[in-house]
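ugh ok fine here u go
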Amino acid sequence: MTNHLAAAGRITVPVALEIAGHEALVQEAYLDSVKVWTWGIGVTDKSGHRVQRYKDNPQPIARCVEVFIWLLRTKYLPEVQDAFADCALTEAQLAAALSFHFNTGAIHRADWVRAWKMGSVETAHAAFMNWRSPASIIPRREKERDLFFDGVWSNDGTTLHYDVRKPSYTPNWSSARRIDISGEVRTAIEAGV
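structure:
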């Protein structure tokens, strides 16, 4: 993976794949672990994209990826850029910050961001792990931290794919399989979605 300065703050294939690798892809709307309607690659209504339209209406993988890239570009990237105004982030740092924000929505409230911007790297490194609830999120947070501070990428171009169990509309955990979405991500980015 490259580690070029991402001063312009753009979504690259490695950035998008890193985030998608921490999520999963479900082609129709489902209820997540806290009963929030979710679709595609971790998309909820909170993003501004209405996901219940995909209940019993599975979409092609390419469409799931297009919406994911579009949301990264139009909603999450501007908020991360605002939080790190006047800071030149590497591609790895941008990917980590975007992943954190996509998952938490808390880039403007995170103590680790303020500490890093003030030059307190050790404090920022430790504070990154303040965002560790529920416990199942800890491995993701550790990977994001290691990417931001050490440039260690964790994704291989794949994400977990699940089918939906009905009538509960929950993920069918036994259907889990890793799928390569790098082609769809590349296509969506090149198309300027």
